[in-house]
Amino acid sequence: MLPYASGQEPAIYLIAVPLLLLVVSAIAQVYSRSRKLSFVSIIVLLLISGSASLYLSGTGASFRFLSVLQANGFGSLLFGAISIAIVLIEVLSYGNTGKLQRFNMLLSFVVLGAFLVAFAYSIIAILVGVEMVILASAFMILQSGKNYVEPAVKLFVLGAVATAVFTLAMALLFPYDVNLSLVGALAAPIGKFIIGMSLVLFIGALSIESAAFPFNFWVPDVYEGAPGNITALLAGVNKKVALIALIEITMLVFAAYSASGGMPLLSDTLVILSILTMFFGNLAALVQRNIKRLFAYSSISQIGYILIGIAVATHLGVESSIFYIIAHMFMIIGAFAIVFWLESRNIRTMDEYSGLYGRNAFAAIGLTILMLSMAGIPPLVGFVGKFILFSSAVYGNLAFLAFVGVINSFISIYYYAKVMNQMFLRKGERHISMDRNIAVVVAACLVFVIAVGIFPQLLLGAASAAAAAL
Amino acid sequence: MIPLLLLMLAIPAFFLALLIVYKRRSAWIATISAASGLVLAIAVIATAAFSGNPSITENYGYIPSLSIGLNLRTSPASLVLLLMTSIVILVTASSGNIAKDRERTASILLVLFQIGAFGLFLSGNFFIFFIFWDIGVIAPFFMINVLGSANRRAASYKFIIYELFASALLLFGILLIYFYAPGHSLSISALPSAYSSMPVGIQETIFLLLFVAFLINVPLFPLHSWLPDAHTEASTQGSMVLSGVLTKFGGFGMLIIFTSMPIAHAYSIYIAALAAFSAFYAAFLMMRQQDIKRIVAHTTIVEMSIIVFAIATLTNIGATGAIYGMLAHGIAVAMMFLAAGAIEHMFHSRNIGFLKGISHNAKLTSWIFLAGIFAMTGVPLTAGFIADILIFLGAISAFGAYGIIPLFSLIFMGAFMYFVINKSFFANKGRIEAEDTVDSRPAVGYAVLLAALFLFGILPFILLGIVNLK
Amino acid sequence: MYPLTVLLPLFVGGIAALAMGVSPKSERYAKYVALAGALGSALLTVLLLVHAAPLPSQIAWFSAGGYSFHLELSFTSANQLLLLLIAVISPLIFLYSVGYMDVPSEQSRYYFLMSLFAVSMTLLAMSGGFLTFFIAWEGLGITSYLLIGFWYHKEAPPLAARKAITTILVGDICLLAGMLMIWSIFHTFSFAAIISGAHALATIPTIIIAAGVLLLVGAFTKSAQFPFHEWLSDAMEGPTPVSAFLHSSTMVKAGVFLAILLIPLFIELKLLWLMLVIGAITVLVGAVTALASDHIKKILAYSTMEDLGLMFVALGLNAIPAALLFFAVQAIYKALLLMSSGTIMKANGDDVNIYRVSSFGRNRLLFISALIGALSLAGLFPFSGFFGKVAIDSAAVSNVTVYVVLTVADFLTALYIFRWLFVPMGNQRRAPRSLIIAKFATMKRSMQAPQAILAAGVLAFTAYLFINGNFAVNLAAASIETAVVVFGMLAAYIMFKKTTSMLSERSRARLLMHTSYPVNAAYNLLAASVIGIARGAEAFERYLNRVLYAGARGVVGLGSSTKVAENGNVNTYVAALAVGLVIVLLLLILVP
Q1: Is residue A178 part of a domain?
Q2: Which end of chain A is least crowded, N or C, by CB within 10 Å?
Q3: pLDDT digits over A457-468, tens only?
């Protein structure tokens, strides 16, 4: 890996400079009155940074700086996707009654955290990034109103526990790798057991944040308690940041360890986590009446699918995980956008959703398409994601895992169909109109889900390149 | 060279987009889409017939990174089924919506189904096959759930659970093929050679997975119970395509696996026994039904069981009979569901205990229903007769005198159908009056289906010539 | 001349008749179109038989799985005989219909179906292979079903039609099964090829014997043999010309015709005994029930059944010429007698009970033609029926049981047919009703003419048999037959001419002899047992659904057990995390 690839330096500035500007201006604007200025500035800066990042991932260039951060295809693709996701969250939150400027300041920390994780070259960067994301989002919940103290505290406590575990894992690793850098560490693993323990603790810590079973119990409460736009952020961005960190740690930090016989441990742990997570998420979702909780459990189960790819740990596995991380980001943001909007109309439970088709056809059809995609029905993006995830499992001699995945996506149909069933009930209630900013977000997610579903090569090539860059 | 096969998908896709953006004249657009489908199907058949080559192939790039292409191909079976499908869909589009109920939704779903069905029969690899399979399942789901009658919710729920369980098995089977086939080729035409190079255990697993998946779709005892509910509660258009086309997906799949997987020889006798039992079982179940659409739905199980029986004979003549049987049954059952829909619309009831002497008001519909019974019981000069001859000649040559046994299920089926038509249609005593007079509204549809039924019954050599091409 | 062109006029006539149904105005002319079609076909048939001397031919129909399937036509003497019979009877029936069917509507449907029936019958008569035969056979079944239920606004006809189609459906499927099984051995549907193939077989495979039995079951259902016969008497609910055409003279013979065409095969298969036994039982059942019935058409229907039984007995005795002779003779007199019934019903306002109707008034023509028919049916020397019956009796001399059965039947036949003739005449004599007498006097020419022509036909046939009677008649059998018939006529004269007390409307003996009650009870029992199986299947289906639902509920139940985990308490969650971590670490220790 070259320290600098000539000719591509401007790109990294195009990412970093707007990002810094973003954070600075967001902090500054807390004291300004213009919602619009704050809104526009964050979106413009994020779009510049995100598209530069996507461009960079397309070039395949790779640099490192300050021995903390590095830019390569993997990080830049994912950071690009996250930037766009955060733009969607921002659009979603525009109609919010709370103070947008404060929200934006916290959001800018989330962006910064995501940036640190995606471009991390050191475990420290990952820790800081993940911590930033969690804390910022906990404060986002907190500042939304008096009713939101409980979920914010829960998130905070769990985040703290995760940090503690993560730090412990780092401490175990420190004697063997004083740099705590991602690449080249652990070239000669000595104390296998300690390293294994460190690995497991890393997985545990990141599982708390990405909500894999049995570290996921906080998720439904927090998701349900938080305002819908922040739920979308938690499900769409926070979790994905933790998963990115997980990929980096398992694939890079422990690469040498895995290569020298640690692979079964890594793989077995993740396989077990993946299976339990899929089953738990899907089974629990079966009995939910509150739609937000239902999607909370559904997103838990989706984490289980993504873990398949990481457990397989082949190029195809990582590629499919990256693909599915990005795919799920947009599926879940779209779904929570609709949920968020309906929440503002006091529509929360399954029964209240009945007849949605008659009241707002776009919302019903949109939610249906998103759910079908999550259930893995072609020709939507979720299907392609699951297909490559499961085929990577079969390729990695984990056909059994693929079978569990297939069965789980069948089980998920049960609750998605239940929601659809309710929505298409004929009731003849009066029409409710969708806020324009929400419609834009839903439409963007739908376009992504359908377009990438029909033409998966759009994303698949990038994901493959990203996996190769890792 | 005109890319006929691609056009068969692209034209309905264009009309689907048109239906979504242009809100008026939906029924017309759907009809034009269906008619262009028929024209293209005839063009494809003519091309095959004049070139003497039944397998036309067109290959386009699709997902290069997974080495999956958009491979389209025809086979003798798919040519016949394409023709049948396009006829049924044309009639469904032009005459199926008797009540003119929510034409736009109905048209969108129908055109979506058209894409699914065409794509399935044209698919050249299993990836494409699966995509179109699920499209073909999702569209009818909404035809039941959104457009159906009183118990549509429970029925659609049952339908989607069964069908997606089938597609879960199918997906897993396809993943195994993907992994074990040399060069990870999913090509259907290369399946026979690929299959023989797999380990025996895997061969068996794949065969059983795909077989059970297709069994559910066809359906056969004991996984048939979705069908009567789904077919009964769907809209008339839904019932027509469900019975007429969707059940043929499984039949088509069975033809593929039975002809390209030699392991089928080990199972064929058991499968034939199951199919034979299924035919009798469904015929007996039918005798306890009160609902006209339910009765017709049960005939589908009987007929499709016989078709699977024919495929399980593993003889050339039996397979030809199965193909022809699917053609005959698709047309006949669509006709009967169209008639049943007209009856429901006229008399606001489908209960044979309530309906009496309806031929007085619904003269045309009653005669059409009768003609449907003739076709179902294999009266000569209807296409069903040719199918019956070929099926049972194949069966006798495969199983000896026992092969004829399933034929006798037609006695029970026919006797009950005649009982119904005499009791509720013709016996004029205590007759009820129509509340709505639409007897002749589906007349064009009746005429097209009847003409097709007799055309393929009187001049069977037209299509058998295609089937015989090697 | 191509043989199939014979069908064309009838077909065109039928379609035209149907097309004329579009308006009431044109519907009036449907009958003439259909009549013209029937006449045209009859003329062409005669031309075909006399001039062209047709040869067997094959039409390639389709091929599949490496085999070709042909439609075969053949013109053996049996084929020609049936063709000729149809050519004679069908125009007469159409003519009779012109007078009989005087309802204003439904004409086009009637003539369409009748023409279609005639087309099927003619095709059947020309068939030389199973495919052709089966197409025609199903055509007969369906048109018969539709014509029996023609008066669907009444209560009984739809039920009768249902019974007919159910029985016929059983036969159709059996015939189809049988012919497919035969194909699997010989790989051909051609009768001639099958027969020569059967001769060449060294050993008879079981599958062909099963096929033979199935074919015979098919034949028995169509020809109303015991125990499949009850539909035939119900079929009399159809319009009388239909009964005269389909259910006495032509369609019901399809089964016998099949047996005649394939008799060498059945001889090879050693299945003649089956025909003999079933035929003999049917003869007795038919004769007894005919005596017990009081329905003017059903008496003749049971008589038809008896006649068909006689043909099967003849075939069972391998007396093919006798069977063929009776085949021809019976068609003419039975059509005539049914027309007479129709005339009586017409005059009596559609009353069918022989104890209530009056017959013939002062119309000598109608009376004499009915009498000729009755005498021929009774088999009195020298009427045509005599020759037919004696030929069969002579063949049966060697088999005492059968001979006794036939002789008893001869006696009963004479008795019931004169009961049929005498009882309505007695009604008229005792209580003459001028209205009915007037109706007989003014009966339409189109109805009278066919009867007169058929009566003349009976006489002409008689004369023909006298001139060309070059067949072996057992003199003893002939004299016994004559004696029995005369005795039967005398008995009938004594029993029914003077008084109606014997076998009166309410006599117990009559009810006892009326076999249709137990037979129908048996049918109902059979239907009930089928429904019983259906109930069983339904119960099993419910059980199956419950099992599947239980499975689904089990999965959902697993889901609700996860609710334990979500109590909203953050302590629990942290505890779960700790436990999870510990488990993962334990795993680390356990998995080396």
Answers
A1: yes
A2: N
A3: 888 888 988 888
Residue A26 lies in a domain: yes
Domain around C579: 529-590
Contact B378 C142 (CB under 8 A): no
Whether C4 maps to a domain, the answer reads yes
Do C340 and C409 lie in one domain? The reply is yes
> Quick one: C482 and C575 in the same domain?
no
> How many angstroms separate the CA atoms of B162 and C426, rounded?
73
Q: Where are the alpha helices (DSSP H) in A313-360?
A: 315-344, 350-353, 356-359
pLDDT at A183: 64
Number of domains in chain A: 1
Q: Which residue has the tokens 């922040």?
A: A230
Which of C505, C539, C567 is the endpoint of a domain? C505
Low-confidence ranges of chain B (pLDDT < 50): none
Give the one of A406, A421, A457 whose C-beta lies nearest to B63's C-beta: A457
- CB proximity list for A433: less than 8 A, separation 6 or greater: A360
In a domain? residue C163:
yes
Q: How far apart (Å, rounded) are the C-alpha atoms in residues A259 and A264?
A: 10
Tell me if A76 sits within 8 A of A54, measured CB to CB. yes
Shared-domain flag, residues C378 and C426: yes
Q: List, for residues C329-355, the tens digit of each pLDDT value.
A: 888 899 999 998 988 888 888 888 888
Q: How many CB atoms lie within 10 A of CB A7?
A: 9
A379 to chain B, closest Cα gap in Å:
6
Task: Say if the Cβ atoms of B179 and A409 lie within 8 Å.
Answer: no
C488 and C551 in one domain? no
Diameter of chain C by CA atoms? Answer: 118
C346 and C469 in a single domain? The answer is: yes
Sign of the Cα pseudo-torsion (B76, B80, B81, B82, in order)? positive
Query: Do C562 and C423 share a structural domain?
Result: no
What's the mean pLDDT in C482-488? 89
Structure tokens at A109: 């920390």
Confidence of residue C470 (pLDDT cuts 50, 70, 90): low
The reply to whether A410 falls in a domain is yes
C535 lies in the same domain as C460 = no
Q: How many pairs of residues across A and C have Cβ atoms under 8 Å apart? A: 85
- With cut-offs at 50, 70 and 90, classify the pLDDT of residue A3: very low
CA C568 to chain centre: 79
Question: How is residue A29 written in tokens?
Answer: 């604007």
Tens digit of pLDDT for each residue in A378-420? 889 999 999 999 989 988 888 889 999 999 988 898 889 889 8
Beta carbon pairs, A and B, within 8 Å: 78
Gap between the terminal Cα atoms of chain C: 94
C571–A contact, CB cutoff 8 A = no
Q: Report chain C's mean pLDDT, rounded to a whole number.
A: 86
Query: Closest to B287 (Cβ–Cβ): which among C67, C207, C531?
Result: C531
A278, A404, A421, A425, best to mutate vs chain B, most B CBs in 10 Å? A421
Domain count, chain C: 3
Q: pLDDT confidence of A186, banded at 50, 70, 90? A: low
The answer to whether residues C327 and C398 belong to one domain is yes
Nearest-CA distance from C142 to chain B in Å? 9
Res B303: pLDDT: 93
pLDDT at position A4 is 46
- Yes or no, beta carbons of C559 and A287 under 8 Å apart: yes
Domain contains C303: no
User: Which range marks the domain in which residue A381 is found?
Assistant: 9-469
- The answer on pLDDT for C215 being more than 90 is yes
User: Which of C199, C234, C269 is at the close of a domain?
Assistant: C199
